[in-house]
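Subject: for your reference before the review

Hello V.,

The reviewers asked for a structural picture of the protein, and I figured it would be easier to keep everything in one thread rather than splitting it across files. Below is the amino acid sequence we used in the manuscript, unchanged from the supplementary table.
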Amino acid sequence: MTDAIILLTSDHREVEALYARVGDGTSFQQSVIDEIVRQLSIHDAVEKQLLYPTLRARVEGGDGMANRALTEHQKVEELLLRVDQATEPEAVLAGLRETMDNVGEHVAEEEAQIFPALHSVLSHEELQELGEQIERAKAAAPTHPHPQSPNTGAGATIAGAAAGLMDKAKDAITGRPADER
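And here is what came back from the structure prediction:
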């Protein structure tokens, strides 16, 4: 069992490590960029489905924090879609740099405000259960960005599951690895 905050923080570090592998962009590594898109898409979906509803329900002022975070997620999803659809290496790398700048700001806010707020109100057992739910949701989550999908409630869960199925079929057809970890 993994604590939800530890799990999501680990996701942040994984994406940062992948981005470090891209380096200054002199050696274009599409497989690493594809993995960043995949990881961020999955992470986005599970936070919308599970983390932010928990934040709203359990933390005083959680609505405002969740709304800010979802606005940041929307921007990252739109940028990530440009990266995912770009075909020229220069456009991919420029889009990835802008995406990762926004991701960095979001991660800093999440780790400084949202995670501590949740940690202060959820028991160890609740954090473990949320972590288990996140792990299960990752298996069905989309592997590509879907900025038009709902951000909250049942809509996020249903749209995420449907997009996840479509993305996995697309990945199988195009030969994109399902998981490069």
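For the response letter, the relevant points are probably these. Helices lie at 4-22, 30-58, 62-85, 89-121, 124-140, 153-174. The chain has a mean pLDDT of 86.

Happy to draft the paragraph if you're swamped.

O.
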